[in-house]
Amino acid sequence: MAHNNKLKEFKEMKKLGEIDKDKIKAQHDKGKLTVWERLDFLLDKDSFIELDEFVETSSNDYGLQKKKKPRDGVITGIARIEGRKVCIYAQDFTFIGGSMGEVHTRKIARIMKSALKLGCPIIGLLDSGGARIQEGISGLDGGGEIFRTNTRCSGVIPQISAILGPCAGIAVYSPALTDFVFMANKTGNMFITGPNVIKAVTGEDITPAALGGASVHCEKSGVAHFYADDEKQCLMKIKKLLSYLPQNNLESAPSLDTKDNPDRKNTEISEILPEDPMKVYDVVQIINEIVDKKSLFQVMEKYAQNAVVGFARLNNIVIGIVANQPQVLAGCLDINSSDKISRFVRFCDSFNIPLINFVDVTGYLPGTDQEHNGIIRHGAKVLYAYSEATVPKISLVMRKAYGGAYIALVSKDMGYDKVIAWPTAEIAVMGAEGAVNILDRKELEKSKNPEKLRQEKIKQFQEKFLNPYVAAKQGKVDMIIEFSETRKTLINVLEAILTKREKLPSKKHGNLPL
């Protein structure tokens, strides 16, 4: 009989934690899934082990004892995705708007620390209005524990955040400290201060989507890395990303059989790459022709599109790709693309993912706007990231590699293990026209026909310097290859240098030019 009473009490406690039907409907009316629907969709069936189920707030202020419920608005636990272990937390907006009180934040910090101990990815499904004002600064301190734990986890385990509802105030900083941020369109928003506060302070009238929606953060701010049309697509993209990532910094990324022939000839490159070096092309087409079929997974696809970064596979091996996109700003490096590249390179280096550069770059973008906003500082991040990276690094020069951008993306003195060039490669301090304007300025000023002389000088400079052979003769290029042999060559070189071991000097940490 005593057992029956205990079991009854247990069932009553379990029932207290359930979401009311009217609140489920309210969540659906907002176009959002409930917290349990999200977990069911993302996680392997019957794999979820919930932790801290009965935790609830102890605060007595503003009637919280009457509102309190088990879980305190966040579900945490250990599960599997495609058979691989993950730790996860998911906020429940139906409980006080998913607000972050002390118990709520401490629960999140605990599951993050568990992920660190277990050596597995930590995933956060965020749907929160921010700090729970009723609890005062108690919840803020818990936020500090989350941020510190984010920082401890950085470079040790992959950290993934999905913004599926509002994410405001203190809630936004944890995603910003994670490796990858996903955002669901229409429902996902991120901002430090919401539209109401902005209107009260500045008088500006703005919608949540216009202030901090998925398009804003994926295209303009660069805060988010992946855009999704809806929640289910967002969760599917998380699954896809995980297939490229190792469990932690001591493991290698998973190998999957892509069933693509390593000896496949790249017959399409000559059709994609224009003969005229001044004409543009889509570098994504080049990459897709070379890597394992359908394996390219772009990161920050909508942001700083003059650079393409992402994961792919070469003969089933996960690689990180950095490429210049001639279709946008002629593939120049600017402030935003420098940030995009350097952050991606540092992630790959942290998690043992080899890097391959696809280079066609004239240099850093000139202009007062770039200079005044710190292109020197931001450009230096690229140099820092590549110099610091000890993973295998290969650079393929497709066309132009000029000046400082050549140093950043190609130079063997930057630590590139192998530099490969196509016959179309142009490796020089600058382009022919710019060089002639400087080198032959006085002669051109004295000439009776300066334009004819300029064209002759440009042709001479092109023939002498704008080819890969000068650099190859000096040992700055290891191999010059035909287009059709690119895939086979990259695979052979990658597999040859995978065993590379390189150690950095002992230090607490460097001082990245933030």
Briefly note the CATH topology name of the largest domain. Answer: 2-enoyl-CoA Hydratase, Chain A, domain 1
Characterize the largest beta sheet: strand count, sense, and whether it forms a barrel: 8 strands, mixed
CATH class (first level) name of the largest domain: Alpha Beta
What is the number of helices? 22
Low-confidence stretches: none
Measured as a percent range, the helix fraction is 40-55%
Please give the radius of gyration in angstroms: 27 Å
Domain count: 3
How would the global form be characterised?
A: elongated
How many strand segments?
A: 16
Decide which structural class fits the backbone.
alpha/beta
CATH homologous superfamily classification of the largest domain:
2-enoyl-CoA Hydratase, Chain A, domain 1
Mean pLDDT: 90
* Cα distance spanning the termini: 66 Å
CATH architecture of the largest domain: Alpha-Beta Complex
What fraction of residues sit in β-strands? 15-25%
